[in-house]
Fold DUF2254 domain-containing protein.
Amino acid sequence: MSTGLAAWRETVVTRLWPVPAIAVVAALLLGLAVSTLDARVDDHLSDQATTWLFGGDADAARSLLAAIASSLITVTALTFSLTVVTLQLASSQFSPRLLRTFSRDSVVQYTLALLLATFTYALTVLRSVRGADGGGELVPRIGVTLAFLLAVASVVALVFFLGHLTKQIRVETMLQQVRTDALTTIRSVLPQRGDGSARGQSLPSPQLDGAFDIAASAAGFLTRIDYDRILEVAVEEDVVVRLDEHVGAFVVEGSPLGVGWPASGLVPGSEAERRISAAVVAFVHTGVERTSTHDTGFGLRQLVDVANKALSPGINDPTTAIHALGHISALLCELADRDLRPVLRHDDDGRVRVAVRVPGLSDYIDLGVSQPRRYGAADLQVLERIAQVLLELSRRVSPQERPVLSEQLRRLRSTADEHAFHHLERQAFDAFGRRIEENLGAAIHQ
């Protein structure tokens, strides 16, 4: 899937209204079509067929359709209210950044779509019912029967929705969903370590003469960078482009996103610099919030937020924080197996034309454990779980990244030393530290 199509799909599926809106339009068209069909075939149906269809008169049809419409709009209001309560709970109890996960829940979207579609269909068929005093009785038996079946399906969907909602509001389910989405993003965006992808050890440095800033055109979070289109601009303009901001970073309008410089030594004029900068920025997309489509750190940020919230004095739920750290460890271990070097794009001659900085493993580890370590400093079990995260990482990281874990272990021990834990309580914590040192293959001094 192209980056543009993936971003459009993310925009659609994370909103509650598109699927219900489509369902309402479809139900309106279906109601009109079935009413027309009824007017043409009702008088020609066989006795065997009519036994399965609605058999009442016009008044009975009106009563049934009115009951379906009125009850369905009430149930829809209840469903919407329960959804809003769930969103409020997720925002206050866990993290506001989890709202996006709930709004993209397909069960919620399709349940609302079925309820609203049944309501719309019942109203549409109701308008076609005519009594004997209206110029000839017309009872849309097929339409009323279908409305009855949709009402039954709506009741079943409501029961299923309530069961699904009670499962979704569990913290374990939310953590699992966030981790699953984050793993999907990581595996689709970041290549495996050592697979020969277009990555480089370091970013190229601009020439002293002719370098110019590439400034952001709008404030917001970077949600997507179209590398291939920027490469086309760089080749066409004969420049090298280096972007220093990564997807997920917040940029301010007018602040530098990166730098460009001529590839052939010919210094462009100020007008050419503005043109090139505008062309590059057009393919660097910003939004009002972070998304999980291309942002490899967003899922990690969500899990850390849940851990931080659980460790706050108002919540005081260290068990949830420990569970969140388990999912954080799974993401960090996956990131340790990925190529986190800068993204490079080359022209047909093999020269680097576009280079983009990406977060390194040290950045992800710091994001994953620093705040939980700080907020859970007084809880030895939390510190033990963070030590276990480092232990699990010590089995996966490359030799070049071992100093990062060494520094994290030093900070963790320093945090534990600031609190007067009993020496017996610290045995498990110290054991984790020794095992980390063994895995890293070198003594780490406190």
